[in-house]
Every structure is written in C-alpha cells, then in structure tokens.
Amino acid sequence: MDSTSPVTVITGASAGIGAELARQLGRAGHRLVLAARREEELRRVATEAGDEARPIVTDVRSRADVERLRDAALEAFGQVDVWVNNAGRGIGVPVLELTDEQFDEMMQVNVKSALYGMQAIVPHFQQRNAGHLINVSSFLGRVPLASYRSAYNAAKAALNALTANLRMDLGRTHPGIRVSLVMPGIVRTEFAGNALGGTPQAQWNAAAGGRGGGPQAQTVEEVAAAIAALIAEPRAELYTNRASAGIAKKYFEDVEEFEAGMGR
After folding, report:
1. What residues pair up with 94 in beta bridges, in sequence order?
2. Is the overall model pTM greater than 0.85, yes or no?
3. Which residue intervals of 50-195 are DSSP H helices?
4. Domain 7-263, classified CATH 3.40.1280.10, yes or no
5. Cα gap 261→227, rounded to integer Å
6. Which of 34, 98, 207, 257 is the most exposed place for a label (fewest CB within 10 A)?
7. Which residues have a Cβ under 8 Å from the Cβ of 171 and sit 6 or more positions away?
8. Backbone angles phi, psi at 178, to 5 degrees
9. Quick check: 148 and 200 in contact, CB under 8 A?
C-alpha cells in the first residue's frame, strides 16, 4: 500500500460502527490501527479491513492503554492522520435510579476515554499542524428522546462540549487541525443489548421506527459511510441522519413546547 495513504486510528473497532468504518476505510486505502478490548473479534475485523490493518487490544478506560495505542500507531506507520474516538456504551436506567457505579461507568467509557484519546494524539497533530480528530457522540446528547439512557445522554452532552472547546482552542493556534463531532441517532447494532440495565423493548421498538419524534434507525453501513465522507470533507459537526438536525433545531427553539409534545 502507498506510504502516502492516510493512517487512521479507530477505537471501539470490534463491532458496530467502528468495525464497519474500518472495513469501509480499508477498502478506500487507509492504513488502519484498530482498538478494542475483545481480541478475537478485533482480529477478525482487522482481517476483513485489509493487510494494512493492525489490531491493538486496548481498554480505552485506561489512559496508559490509550497512550500505548498511539505509540503503536506511530511505530507502525510513523504518523497518524485521523483519530476516531468511537468507543462507547449505553445504559437503560432512569435518572432517579442511577447508582454511583453506573454513572461513573458511563462517564469513564463515553467521556474520559475520548479525553484520553484527545490528549494522547493532539500533541502529535500540533507538531505537524495537521490531523483530524473525530469524536463519535450521539443525537441523544442534544435531544432527550430516550430519557432512560440518562447518564449516557449526559456523558455524550459532556463530550459535545469538550469537542467544541477543543476545536475553538486549536482554531486559534493550529488551524491545520480539524476537530469533528459525529452524532448518530438510533443505529441497528448490538449497542442496545449491551447497555447497562438493558433497553426497554417497547421504547426501543418505537425509537427504531422513528415514532416519538425521533428519526428512523440507520444501518451501521449508512453511519460508517457518513463518517468516511466526513473524513474526506471535514466539518465541525455531522448528524448522520439528516432528520436529526431539524429535530434538534426545533427542540432548542422551544424546549418546553417540544417536551410537552413528547409527553402527549
């Protein structure tokens, strides 16, 4: 493969959006470093993504592991062009029933892991005044269409804010670095089944069908293709489902009216 091909790191790459993104970028010629905890699944995805995909078993809840992931990417390819903080986990527990452990897990997996990624790779980008950081968040970090996701939604809202603040900081000092936020809506993956506390089936079915004010569910192929297009043409924010932007705008125009309508 051409040594000028982009080098892309993807966390949460053993399944779902991360795995499909790896496959699509591999076909497009990216050199890949793929990270996840599940070694067997990660190695299978790396094989599917092509000869230039390196699986690195990584627990993104550990800063040392994330730094080791960065070092492995630099050792393998000499540089990193794109870093995708994609790892995450959901929850199906209402706000008033959250335990300390559940709340901390949501923040660790969905926010601190991305913070570790940002702090690990951005200095490398700063040295080059080039690079593209992508944080995969959620539409639920903007609009509370699934209140049972509680601390997950809160964590993604925090990730949204960190991403925006980093983009402002780097825009002043390193305009060659791009920082993007990706907000999928409902996606057909194993995410719902792996959520802490599960997912209320009736609410999941309604959300997947686009009822209750939300956009219809997307496939992982659709979401991964949207992220791949974002890599090709960077911008600050991306709702992978076009309907989501209009829903978010309507929500913030009149929160009270929107939420009252959701309750009817």
Report:
1. none
2. yes
3. 63-77, 100-107, 113-128, 150-173, 191-194
4. no
5. 32
6. 257
7. none
8. -105, 140
9. yes
d(CA 208, CA 160): 23
CA torsion 167-120-137-59 (nearest 10°) is 180
Residue 195: its pLDDT value, please?
65
d(CA 98, CA 101): 8
Task: Give the span between the Cα atoms of 114 and 250, in whole angstroms.
Answer: 29
Q: Which residues pair with 136 in a beta bridge?
A: 182
- Give residue 217's identity as a one-letter amino acid code: A
Candidates 84, 9, 66, 36; CA nearest to 238 is 84
The residue type at 200? P
Which two three-digit tokens encode residue 93?
A: 């527990």
Residue 260's H or E segment, with its range, is helix 255-263
Looking at the predicted structure, is the pLDDT value of residue 204 above 50? no
- Radius of gyration (Cα) for the chain, nearest Å? 18
Please give the structure tokens belonging to residue 32: 């890949």
Task: Give the tens place of pLDDT for each residue, 4-19.
Answer: 899 999 999 999 999 9
Find the largest Cα–Cα distance for the chain: 57
CA distance linking residue 103 with residue 113, whole number of Å: 14
Going from N- to C-terminal start, the domains of the chain cover: 7-263
